[in-house]
Amino acid sequence: MANKNTLSALSGLRDLSIAPGAVFIGPWADIDHEKFLIIAGVADDRILVCSVLINSEINLYIQRRPRMLACQVLLKGEDYSFLSHDSYANCAQPIKAKLESFMVDDMRYCGLLSEIDLKWVQESIIASGTLTVDEMNVFFLKK
Which residues contact 31 (CB under 8 A, 6 or more apart)? Predict the structure, then answer.
């Protein structure tokens, strides 16, 4: 029997519980440990997700770049059972990918961000200047 908290265990795209604010953990390319991933926005018509990685600390490269530093959102460890300490959502470099790329057995659901933290993440992604106007509309400003 498939593990219920993995994406591939779900029957189809319409049944997925991927929604803005959902947090997953799993392996990440070129990184030697699992990473937390926040689903910040989902495009209805393109089957894409816009997401960000959670880091334990802000690396020196980002610390030396004020625009990127301004796009780091503090997530308090005490607010989330899946975090063992305060961490940062790196909203300066959102990831746009096909939904299927997150549908693997080793990607596990962890929980949901609070509404206020999700709002900060989304606003920080928009402020980062890395998305086109079309992408901002598709992921965050749709009605």
Answer: none
